[in-house]
UniProtKB/TrEMBL annotation:
Keywords: Signal. It comes from the Bacteria. InterPro entries: CarboxyPept-like_regulatory, Cupredoxin. It comes from Blastopirellula sediminis. Residues 1-28 form the signal peptide. This is Rhamnogalacturonan lyase domain-containing protein. The keyword Zinc-finger does not apply.
Length: 263
């Protein structure tokens, strides 16, 4: 019996080593991308919007435009970043971590007569719940090249929408009852997309290692041309090639955008 155990032990250790090696090798095939957008120069303060419908609900506090939101140190919110396959090619297959998100709903709310969030990233594998959280009716009017709808949603109601095809760039959402209510939806077939947060930062996790092209877009500037990304620059379509390092977080650092490019 001791001799049998002695024979089995090296075999077991070898098996465990192979499993750990395979796991490490698999991890090394993926990497992540992060960066922070900062505006250089002066930008105008957000415009206070005219609220002239259902004032008893919508006019309880001032509502400001969210087209251009810049933090105290220039942090730029709502820059959309997404992987852009070369012409005629498909986006890479997603990491297994993303597959568990398929069919998990994304929420886009009308709350206090404002779209929340103002910029939403949508993967076509996930349904979107357009929810009205106000005591008055709103309509969700979305105008895309591949998907267009206009749905009236009663108080505390919701509309469930699936997007079958991606859109080339972010598409507008609005409430035509309350015309100051606007948002942007980035609809992609791939989960490899993000929007910068209040700190101007974004992260796209678990990307396949290698060279990939990414698009950069902002509501106030459209496709961000001539944007310095590391040692490269975006082209006239706001696209730049970035190398994703295997097993690492590729940090682009501060990405500076001239205020004059955000009009």
């Amino acid at each position: 019996m001791p001799k049998e155990r002695a024979i089995r032990t090296p075999a077991l250790l070898l098996t465990l080593s192979l499993i750990l090696f395979a796991s490490s090798a698999a991890h090394a095939q993926w990497g992540s991308l992060t960066g922070k957008f900062v505006v250089k120069g002066m930008t105008p303060p957000p415009l206070r919007l005219k609220v002239d419908k259902d004032v008893e609900v919508c006019g309880k506090k001032p509502i400001f435009a969210e087209t251009l939101l810049v933090g105290p140190n220039g942090e730029l919110k709502n820059v959309a970043v997404w992987i852009t396959p070369a012409r005629g090619k498909s986006a890479p297959e997603p990491h297994p971590n993303y597959l568990q998100l398929a069919n998990v709903p994304i929420n886009v709310d009308n709350l206090a007569c404002v779209y929340t969030p103002h910029m939403e990233v949508i993967w076509t594998k996930r349904p979107v719940h357009f929810r009205n959280q106000d005591p008055i009716a709103h309509n969700f009017s979305v105008t895309g090249f591949n998907t267009t709808f206009n749905v009236l949603v009663p108080p505390d109601g919701a509309h469930v929408q699936t997007f079958e095809k991606e859109e080339k760039s972010p598409i507008p959402a609005a409430c035509t009852i309350h015309p100051w209510m606007k948002a942007q939806l980035l609809v992609r077939d791939s989960p490899y997309a993000a929007a910068s947060d209040d700190n101007g930062a974004f992260t796209i996790a678990d990307l396949p290692a290698g060279k990939w092209e990414f698009s950069f877009w902002h509501e106030a500037g459209g496709y961000l041309k001539n944007l310095k990304i590391g040692d490269e620059k975006t082209d006239r379509k706001g696209v730049c090639e970035i190398t994703i390092e295997p097993g690492k977080m590729t940090d682009l650092g501060q990405i500076v955008i001239d205020a004059g490019d955000l009009k």
